[in-house]
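Reference record
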Amino acid sequence: MLTDGRQVVVKARPFEARITGCVAVQGALAQAGFPCPVPLAGPAKIGGYAVTAEALVPGGVRLAPARGARPFAALLAQLIKAAPLVTRVAPLAPPPPWAGWDHPGVRLWPDHDDRGGDLNGVAGPAWVDRAARLVRAQMSAWHAAARVGHGDWESQNIAWQDGTALAVHDWDSVIAQPEPAIVGLAAAVWPAAGGPGEAACVNQTAAFIDAYQAAAGATWTGRQVQAAWTAGLWVRLFNAKKDAADGGGPQLERLAAEMPERLSMAGLTHAHIVQLAMMICGQALTLTALGGSSVCAASPPGSWTGASSTRRRPPARASRRTRLNAAKIHRRRVSSRLLSFRGVSSGRPGVRRSGPASPHRGRRRYARDSSRRSRTARSAAFPPEAFW
């Protein structure tokens, strides 16, 4: 507490040059009337740490995700509109690792995650690394003007009072990225309140992107919408990779269930989706069927967010012996049909059928029945659940 009665918060974290730009953005937004703590001093470099002071904003509660994405999306639209131009503040690069698909390193993941570890040294899962490469390549190929925004737009960083935003926190997460990328990052995580595995489901992500466009008075192109989904996929993959470094966790499991829909919304090809789905299956993780419903944060017990003892496991793939037996049965049926077509009864070999028969009608019937039986045999040998 200062001598004039004001309460302040003093922060000290490892020094990064980008913090200077973050504090400048926070100050400009506070001056413009945006709900955030007013920076009072800093950053000062003391013993390798960046030290800042800001006014304390007491009170406030978290807004339940059940209220919907609209208030969160509208608040982000207000922030981006009021934020200074990228050229008016100190450099904000490099972005935090969970928003760093464009990091300058040559390896897939940034050199350090938000815990100080190196995700590049974590083996697998292969589908996470493969998807991250696709995301990084797609975002690198897309060029758009950068805007200033918040890179950690989670519910836990926003305090509300009577349905109105009281204060947005965590201003070290300011980033400079294209507007759809900023929105996509927020859309992927906005319901998170600090618990393990908390994030937006596919429907909540879609609702946030739609609500943002409505609040900003904009109608995005299909490419911009895909960019938003792609950017959101990076932060989810980053969190899943951290779970993998810890031996597994809810972020990894939940993302596996949502991957087909998120890849599709990001504009990746069907071949990429199938390839990654098979990789996920190889990692012994459950994957929802293509086009299936996703798991939301409020899923009932038995879903991926429910008790682990009641999770449904994917059926085992048909064994090689089962597939060979099904193929053998199919060949026997086809052989039997050939004998019937030639006028030989399968039950009584060598005995002609009575009555004349049109050879053309027989060929058509044989082709139709053979095709049907072929499909039946293939379904028995390779049921859809064998792949998922």
Residues 325-386 form one domain.
